[in-house]
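Late entry, written up from scratch paper. The run itself happened at the end of the previous shift, but nothing got recorded in the book at the time, so transcribing now.
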Amino acid sequence: MSNGSDPSAVLAALDRAQDAFEMVGHGRTAFEDGISADEDWKTQLTKACRLLKVVQSQDGYYTAVIEVCFGAIERSIEAYALSMTNDTLQDFQDHQFAYERAHQIGLFERETAEAMNDLYSENRTESYYGGWRPTQEQAEAMTDLASAVHRFAVSQIRDGGVCLCD
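Output as recorded:
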């Protein structure tokens, strides 16, 4: 892989990261507490719960808050879709598909789903990759939106009792 000029610290860390994701040589694997492994929708829902928990404890890191909020919104929509339809996780490999699917499966009205998709496509990329400096107001608004989407998706899933937020 390396031509010999890359820093050994980077190469060692890369090897360690690859091994970690392949679960090589770590003995007993320690999974994150609370993330359900029972069914895909439960996994996505509990990941959204954990993302929202992180957002609530990261005051002042607006870029991270905004990025994590988009992730929590997508995981919440995916949890609903996986629970209530025949969708699979592989259907959600494109970030924007979650917003389109939210309307298709009746979770949100078309205008709402399109507005969330527009918010994602117009602002997420700029706030994360672009030159914008995210603001406190943007981070707080995204936290409110992600929390509202999560609560609503949880309330619409027939099989309840999975959300970790309470």
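The chain has a mean pLDDT of 90.
(Scratch paper discarded after transcription.)
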